[in-house]
Amino acid sequence: MTNKAKEYAEALFLLSMENGEIENTAAALETVTTVLAEQPDYVEFLSSPAIPKAERTAALGTAFAALPESVVSFLQLLCERGRMREWRACADEFAALCRNARRMTTATVTSAVALTAQEQQQLNEKLNAMSDKTVTVTWVTDTALLGGIIVEMDGKVLDGSLRRRLQEVKEVMEQ
Fold first, then answer.
1. Which residues of 82-105 are buried (b: 16+ CB within 10 A; e: fewer)?
2. pLDDT tens digit string along 14-26?
3. DSSP E strand boundaries for 112-155
4. What is the mean pLDDT of residues 115-126?
5. Distance between CA 63 and CA 162 in Å, rounded?
6. Does the global pTM surpass 0.70?
7. Which of 72, 35, 39 lies closest to 57, judged by CA?
């Protein structure tokens, strides 16, 4: 994700928060994400310098007229500034800001073998306590780990895998 995408998303988030429209904006952005994912040529059209900006921004206004004005204006701003290809990064960052505002986050837990329901529950409770947020976990099994788990959450990686521990032992032995 680019810094610009983050800046645009933060600006839209602050505007939505100020107007009390965070949920409406989030829902509208999900709609736009679905539409643009189904129509990748439309993003190319909106990004094309061969087509006048006025025509591209007008097309956005028409295509998304049913959405809140702030979202349409946001899309038009991205189009005018030549940043439509960063649309998805902006939407993802907005979603992350919403989760953070709701004290929610996501994590991916990768383990060598599938964890039992009880182990998943215990680990989820520990992650909730660690982050002081409600954590939604995606569970992944990767037999290449040999053993242990890797947790990716809030841009951090907690590597408790056997592979990592063996690597640490090897590094100590080589010194």
1. ebbebbbbbbbbbbbbbbeeeeeb
2. 999 888 899 999 9
3. 134-141, 148-153
4. 93
5. 52
6. no
7. 72
